[in-house]
Amino acid sequence: MKALWVQAEKVAAATPESRNRTVDFLRAASLCAVVLGHWLMAAPRVGDGGASLDHLLSISPWTHFLTWLFQVMPIFFFVGGWSNATTWSAARRDGLPFSEWLHRRALRLLMPVGVLLLFWFVAGAVAAAAGLDSEILRLASRIALVPVWFLAVYLAVVALVPLTHGAWRRWGMGSFWGLIAVACFIDWGFFSQGWDAFGWTNYLILWAAVHQLGYAWRDGRMASPRLQALCASGGFILLVWMVRIGPWPVSLVGVPGDPVSNTSPPHLPLLALAAFQFGVVRLLEAPLNRWLARPIPWTATLVLSSSLMTLFLWHSTSMMLLIGAAFWAGGVGMHGEPGSITWWVGRLLWLPLLVAALVPFLAGFGRFERPKSVTTSPPSATRQIFGLLLACVGLAFLADMGVTGPGWLGLAWVPLGLALAGIFVATRVGPPFFRPLR
């Protein structure tokens, strides 16, 4: 850890003054908020009926308002828009082809998720052979793989950057409002006309709209503090109004058993939240950049950013392994009633253990987040997009159902195969992903 900090200090000292450090900080902070939220929402307990793994949002309705703090995916998407606009503009300026630009972006995202899928493929096969109850394996793997839904959507948005950025350069904020109009129409059809299947297209439309905000940020739009405050306050007021009139629920993440989720598929309250967060971020950008100009905060941000995707992908897996170990040990620390004061104190005491359980995964798999190119030339853009399509479909199903299925060894071979094949097609890197990277 000391060596990592020393290396980060050297990078921090060489950082140009022109760098928008807030972008890096927000990317790291938003994913850390997701990790903390997942750790707090898990409610394992051992009672008279035995061991169970509940969800705090299902037990304590008041915690639904906490999701307004922990639902930070809009921040990640408009930060991604800022970053993608920067790198794509640089690629166009330098004559870099789309295939090479996309390969650099996709490789860093797909390599870590490929390792995670291989881990759960092996773990699922071993658990099934050992006779572990398939429902336990399904629940554990589903919770562990929930983070990959975001990758499925984000990769699709990244692949569309030439189109979305081209639309931004031509129509500016009109490209954003156009996507907003489509998202509103989809939500209207979902709730008023029963177009349930059509509603799932908002996964792409809504998050692409949030991504456009990053282009606006990168081009210096809404630079006035008055406009930024109006955006933040308007988004918050709109969010409160939406959840009060319905049909949208209060929780901004899915609640097990609820008939409607604001995230599956995504609905308009997430756009209101995005407006609020975008306004707040723009208001805080200057003071954050001044704070991050100090050596310690900026070095810490760089250290965290070096293994950020590994942290995000493996935090649920390490949590499930720790919970399983606690159950095996007789439910140590899990006898309190979820939602009670005693339980909350216990959860806070659990946080250091969850961090400790994650450290081996960061040490072992962090290097896959920093791959060198394994080919002299990237696959063609057509091949990469086809591979990303396969991977996104497979990841979406795995995030929804876990690794269990009716196939041989009790595994879901089709989504696993689609995801792994898609990663290979898009990157030319196949299992076991263990080539030297650094």
Question: Would you write up a description of this structure?
Answer:
The chain has 438 residues and is mostly helical. The chain has one domain (21-39, 65-427). It is 71% helix and 3% strand. It has helices spanning 2-13, 21-41, 56-59, 67-70, 73-94, 98-129, 134-145, 148-159, 161-171, 173-192, 196-199, 202-218, 225-245, 269-292, 295-305, 308-328, 341-365, 381-401, 413-427, and strands spanning 42-47, 50-55. Strands 1-2 form a two-stranded antiparallel ribbon. The model is unreliable at 430-438 (pLDDT under 50).
Which short descriptors sum up this protein?
71% helix; mainly alpha; 438 residues; globular; single chain
- % residues in beta strands: under 5%
The counted number of beta strands is 2
| Main sheet properties | 2 strands, antiparallel
User: How many individual helices?
Assistant: 19
Order of helices and strands: HHEEHHHHHHHHHHHHHHHHH
Low-pLDDT runs: 430-438
**Rg of Cα set:** 22 Å
Taken together, the total number of domains comes to 1
How would you classify the helix and strand content by structural class? mainly alpha
Describe the global form.
globular
Could you give the distance between the termini?
Answer: 18 Å
* Sequence of strands across the biggest β-sheet: 1-2
Mean pLDDT: 89
Bin the helical content.
over 70%
